[in-house]
Design the sequence.
């Protein structure tokens, strides 16, 4: 399996884990008018409403469509150790694992049982392979429906749109880790819509304006459920990604568990070959 194919397989797997859809509950109807709020107030309420956790695990049913092709359906198990490790196992309907992925802030590990090979690389390879900004913090935040935790909060502008609060920011910078300068002249515009009933994120839209290409990631969260006490998280999500080709993903979570002891096994069999 070539590195390019490995990248696309990993890309679909990772992004698919971010998106979860098709639960039975419905979004609560929001009634107008909304009281205007400043950006500082909305950011504070958004932070207060975010899922607070140390470990997270769930099972997921995933449907992925790339371009105009048919949908591919598979199952996944997702486990997260906050700020340190994301792990997931991919299997088809018969229950046999075909791939396993482990991601840390520094590294990416990919195990392919189907072709009996594996890949190990730096986390920066995600951005290089997909030619866009994708790091551990972004992936973890999208998986649980939170805003980015390692990025600055200043610079937001507030408004009201379609009976929801909206925050907009351009070129948010990391505050906890140094970002290496790049020659890529890209500008990122982030839009966040907040449900005024619970101040959870209902939609995120990230636009990347590059010199020769524009890319858009649109994620819609829905069906918020209580998971620990009064804490809530979305149990459904749908994504539309305009990359080299359009990608649409839907994913359904079940058996969500918070703050339980987890294991993250990742053993590479001796007979497996390394993808260079």
Sequence:
């Amino acid at each position: 399996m070539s590195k390019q194919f490995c990248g696309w397989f990993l890309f679909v797997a990772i992004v698919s884990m971010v998106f979860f859809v098709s639960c039975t509950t419905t979004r609560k109807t929001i009634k107008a008018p909304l009281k205007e709020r400043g950006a500082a107030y909305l950011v504070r309420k958004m932070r207060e409403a975010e899922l607070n956790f140390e470990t997270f695990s769930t099972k997921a049913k995933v449907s992925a469509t790339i371009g105009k092709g048919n949908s591919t359906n598979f199952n996944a198990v997702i486990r997260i150790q906050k700020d340190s490790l994301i792990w997931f196992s991919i299997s088809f309907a018969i229950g046999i694992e075909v791939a396993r992925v482990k991601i840390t802030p520094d590294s990416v590990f990919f195990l392919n049982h189907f072709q009996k090979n594996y890949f190990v690389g730096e986390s920066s390879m995600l951005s290089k392979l997909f030619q866009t900004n994708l790091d551990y913090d972004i992936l973890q935040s999208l998986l649980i429906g939170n805003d980015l935790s390692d990025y600055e909060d200043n610079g937001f502008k507030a408004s009201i749109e379609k009976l929801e609060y909206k925050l907009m920011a351009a070129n948010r910078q990391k505050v906890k880790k140094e970002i290496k300068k790049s020659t890529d002249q890209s500008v990122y515009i982030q839009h966040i819509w907040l449900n005024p009933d619970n101040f959870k994120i209902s939609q995120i839209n990230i636009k990347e304006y590059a010199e020769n290409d524009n890319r858009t990631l649109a994620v819609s969260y829905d069906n918020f459920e209580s998971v620990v006490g009064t804490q809530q998280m979305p149990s459904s999500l749908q994504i539309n990604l305009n990359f080299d080709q359009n990608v649409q993903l839907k994913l359904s979570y079940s058996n969500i568990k918070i703050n339980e002891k987890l294991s993250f096994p990742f053993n590479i069999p001796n007979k497996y070959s390394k993808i260079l």
In short: DSSP finds four helices and 14 strands in the chain.
